[in-house]
Amino acid sequence: MSESFQHLMCLYTNDSEMKFIPPSFRPSSNVDMQTATQLLKPAGNDKKKIAFCVATTDGFKDWPSDKFSVIADWLIEKYNSVIIMTGIPKHTNKVYQIIEYMNHKDSCINVVGKTSFSELIALFRQIDLVLTLDTGTSHIAGAAGCPVITIFTHNSPAIYKPAGEYTGAVSAYLPCSGKHICIGPRKCKKNDCVEAVTVSMVQKEISRIMEMI
């Protein structure tokens, strides 16, 4: 939002020289970095480390478990990756469901509920990419300096995409969501905005970002 607002102000004042500086966290402590390193140790050094955040607080912005599992297996096969499952304890059931659907379960590390806020930042500073839903994790990863792709089922990437050089977004851009502020499931009973985000859309955006980093 701040980046969009500053862009509007630059247009209004005809100022083409001002540049938006994305927010960034202060350097992580040695203790937090060591904790993150230990959590990632099973991944080894020769594989891409891809973190997932697969659930939101409200739940209505979530993406189906079976689609996440397909993306996970594809990342493992195409990019020689290890999947790092992040989140709070409330997300445990969905994470287990995704892992159960996966063909390559052994290439998944579950750290759900095992990190503090500062440890999560340190974790993101040691991985290659974060794939997340439209939630706070998206902005945490961006401010940690990690490449991040956000799946938007309801809200607009133009408004809510995290700031940063290597940030991507996936949205179906339906007329009532993706371009405007969604009124939410309490007033809208449709679910096509979730269903319209396909696996191939997410794969395409991942490939684009992976070619950049």
Can you put this structure into words, describing what you see?
It is a single chain. With 213 residues, the protein is an alpha/beta fold. The chain has a single domain (34-212), classed as Rossmann fold, CATH 3.40.50. Helices cover 40% and strands 13% of the residues. It has a 6-stranded parallel beta sheet, sandwiched between helices. The mean pLDDT is 91.
Number of helices: 9
Instruction: Count every beta strand, where a strand is a DSSP E run of 2 or more residues.
Output: 6
Q: Strand order within the widest sheet?
A: 3-2-1-4-5-6
The third-level CATH topology is: Rossmann fold
Structural class: alpha/beta
Rg (C-alpha, Å) = 17 Å
Order of helices and strands: HHEHEHEHEHEHEHH
Overall 3D form? globular
Task: Return the CATH architecture.
Answer: 3-Layer(aba) Sandwich
CATH class membership? Alpha Beta
Q: Largest sheet, if any?
A: 6 strands, parallel
Average of pLDDT: 91
Straight-line N-to-C gap: 25 Å
Tell me the count of domains.
Answer: 1
